[in-house]
Amino acid sequence: MPDTAHERATEFPTDPTTDRRFGVFSVLVLIAGVIAAALVSWWLPLEPSADLIGIGLLLVLAFLVVEQVSVNIDVRGGVSWTISFTEIPLAIGLFVAPFQVVLAAHLIAGVGTLLARRVQDRVLYNTGAEILEITTAFTVFTVVGDLLRGAGPEWLAALTGAVSAPISSTLLALVAVHILGRRMRVAAATKLVSRTLVLGLVNASVGVVGYEVATNAHDGWLLVAAMLVGVWALYFAYAGLLREQRDLEALSEVSLIVARSGRRAAARPALGQDTAAAVRSDDWLGVAHRIKDQLGAARVVLRLRFDPQSPMHTVVAGDALPDDMVDLEATGSRSDGLLRLPGSHVRHFRRPDALPEIRESLVRRGAQEALVVPLRSASHLLGVVEAHDKLSRWRGFGQADLRMIGTTASHLATALDNRRLLATLRHDAYHDPLTGLHNRPGFRQVASELLGSSPDSVMLRVDLEVQPAISDALGYAWSDRITIAAGRRLRDVLGPDVPLARLEGGAFAALLVDADFDLAREVAEKLLASLAAPYPVDRLTVEAGVVVGFSSSTMSEGVLFTDAAGVPREGGGSVPDVDELLKRADVALRAARSSGEKYKAYVPSMGQMFLRRFQLVTQFRQALESDQVSVHYQPKVALPSRAVLGVEALVRWVHPEFGRLDPDEFVPAVEAAGLVDALTDFVLDKALVKIRAWLDRGLRIGVAVNLSVRSLANQDFPDQVAAALERHGVPPELLTLELTESGVMADPARALPVLRGLHTLGVVLAVDDFGTGYSSLAYLRQLPVDEVKIDKSFVFGMGSDLGDLAVVRSIVELGHSLGLVVVAEGVEEDAARDQLAAMGCDVAQGYLISRPLSEERLEAWLQARTTKVRGLRDETVLTLLS
């Protein structure tokens, strides 16, 4: 007979309205049962007999026995039915006892079992349902018996009455499902009723056959006993299979709950937060309730550690746990015996036979027995699962329960370990491994969320500049230590709640929420003061430069924004995103560095400059192809003979929109965009074409071309130059390649092999802007160069600054001592030329001789200011007229 039970309504939290509806429905069912019992008692009055007490006791015992061997069947609607052999004693009771005795025996056994199991939330409903079952059975039994009297077997009435009882309770249970608001399809309800009918018919048939055999056959009770043993054996086999099926379903459901929770956590990674904060407690509460239901336990406790540094997170399903047992670590109970079990297998403890330490732990939990299994990964305790007090068996937890909780714990341990691994991967994906701060993707996500909720924010960009010489001297490990220390100082100044990221190298970014430029300037000054303080490195102290740029999210400008790929997009005046704010702050930082300031705020004009630079870079290749870019030449003459030795090739760009552009504006942008190779090839090709044309006219005039850092890092560059010289038929000594000292020192290990390869070709190598580098004397002897060019800043100051005069004189003497040709740039006055000639300087270049000239003007200049000495072609010389 299905004993309808509102078991799974407590598995997951239900709303109070549903509970109230079910409570009212339970009262109505009980009232209906009492009224029905009263009517049947009036219809079938009790006839007292001396045998009724004994019969009643036997029926109570029989009902108690079948209650203890029941099977629970879960229905997805949220309700479970308990199916047992109740129909067997009921069918016998229809034969041997009046209605009142059978009803009393059934209520004593059924309600007593519920109370013994401490299932109090469904006593009223089950009491009413059991009364209606007995009244239905006796009503059908009496009516069918009257109809069959003299026309059919008596046992058919008892069989029909016993089968009607489970049918009535099942129909009542379907009404309860509807009252609870659970969804149950018609097909599922029909299937449940049919199964109940089959089981009821089998059980009722066993009862009727047993009674008939025992009363009508000689020693029939032996046959009945054998039949009951066989049915019970079949029942236990069926119950075992059903238990295994339900265990598999429970494991599957637990796995699905944990997987859904993990997917939700992965969809919204809690960057910068404790991992436990991302865990949905109701998911784990659902897991605990599912385990509780499957074990039939009074309470299940999950103690889970989601992070090695975080405390255990406790989830309780079922009976409330004493307050001092919920957070054992906070209450100083970390030495609790059930939390210090070794290994990862299931332990079963009963209070009477447990060790004192374990007994104390059970007493503190208010539990008589417990199943405990630690959750472990390879090296960490992930948590503990506890199940307290078996409700559905008088013998307590059995082997099936141990297997079930052990397997479930293994699944949970694997799921928790996977979650920890995913959390680690998410953390590594969004954090910088060196400083532990956010990286660019992590910062973008956190900052985007804050900008969405608080658009009045300021983006800070901080650059920590450590001299390359310090990194070379101390090594990159020490540079990393300085970067780590800088990150800590930034965090100390900004506080723990400000999003902070290391973008790359010594570049950091932070977002100040609900801030304006005044607050940003105040914070910038604090950051500068903190970061500029010396960094102790062993016994040394290292200083680093700091530059700060910042931009406001509330500043609108009528310019084109760019997307992540750098392509302009419409959107002037809208709230910028994180990448836009970072870009603006970076523009402000570059502006501060260019102007020599420590910090600078972004203004729209900087955006116009950035857009102009962007346009120059994107239009540069087209400019090369459309002859917007040209090469001008500035002559160089020998001192004191004034013979024209060569020219320096200088690039010029006449932009159709911006007009004539200064090389200092577009060349750095072209270099930063990686297009300098195209520029170098263009100028080199123009220079070689010019040299070849002069050679064809009998003139030996060399051309100097400036090299970039990128060319010095290209190991194939000497081969490219050799191929160009051969293609144009130009002697290598007529080509001069000028390089800056800082360009060589950017990466000496890669630059020196390139320079040696060029020197082997016979190309003239010159060091441009000599005297401004930080290691001129130390590296000059190592460079395979032929010329040094005195920086024009020293030449300009010779006439008024004795220091500059001394520097120029020293460079001339140093160059000559090393066998180098010395060239002076920036010669604009006769006095300077004469001074240089007196010092022994070899070559002069500057506005006194000529400004940079286009090809046409250079030819005119050569014709107007030179004379040609007749002779052999290889002896032709150009001499500058006074």
From TrEMBL:
<feature type="transmembrane region" description="Helical">
    <location>
        <begin position="91"/>
        <end position="116"/>
    </location>
</feature>
<dbReference type="Pfam" id="PF00563">
    <property type="entry name" value="EAL"/>
</dbReference>
<feature type="transmembrane region" description="Helical">
    <location>
        <begin position="220"/>
        <end position="241"/>
    </location>
</feature>
<feature type="transmembrane region" description="Helical">
    <location>
        <begin position="156"/>
        <end position="180"/>
    </location>
</feature>
<feature type="domain" description="GGDEF">
    <location>
        <begin position="455"/>
        <end position="605"/>
    </location>
</feature>
<keyword id="KW-0472">Membrane</keyword>
<dbReference type="InterPro" id="IPR029787">
    <property type="entry name" value="Nucleotide_cyclase"/>
</dbReference>
<feature type="transmembrane region" description="Helical">
    <location>
        <begin position="123"/>
        <end position="144"/>
    </location>
</feature>
<feature type="transmembrane region" description="Helical">
    <location>
        <begin position="52"/>
        <end position="71"/>
    </location>
</feature>
<feature type="domain" description="EAL">
    <location>
        <begin position="613"/>
        <end position="866"/>
    </location>
</feature>
<protein>
    <submittedName>
        <fullName>Diguanylate phosphodiesterase</fullName>
    </submittedName>
</protein>
<keyword id="KW-1133">Transmembrane helix</keyword>
<dbReference type="Pfam" id="PF01590">
    <property type="entry name" value="GAF"/>
</dbReference>
<dbReference type="InterPro" id="IPR003018">
    <property type="entry name" value="GAF"/>
</dbReference>
<dbReference type="GO" id="GO:0071111">
    <property type="term" value="F:cyclic-guanylate-specific phosphodiesterase activity"/>
</dbReference>
<keyword id="KW-0812">Transmembrane</keyword>
<dbReference type="InterPro" id="IPR000160">
    <property type="entry name" value="GGDEF_dom"/>
</dbReference>
<dbReference type="InterPro" id="IPR050706">
    <property type="entry name" value="Cyclic-di-GMP_PDE-like"/>
</dbReference>
<dbReference type="Pfam" id="PF00990">
    <property type="entry name" value="GGDEF"/>
</dbReference>
<dbReference type="InterPro" id="IPR029016">
    <property type="entry name" value="GAF-like_dom_sf"/>
</dbReference>
<dbReference type="InterPro" id="IPR043128">
    <property type="entry name" value="Rev_trsase/Diguanyl_cyclase"/>
</dbReference>
<feature type="transmembrane region" description="Helical">
    <location>
        <begin position="22"/>
        <end position="45"/>
    </location>
</feature>
<dbReference type="InterPro" id="IPR001633">
    <property type="entry name" value="EAL_dom"/>
</dbReference>
<dbReference type="InterPro" id="IPR035919">
    <property type="entry name" value="EAL_sf"/>
</dbReference>
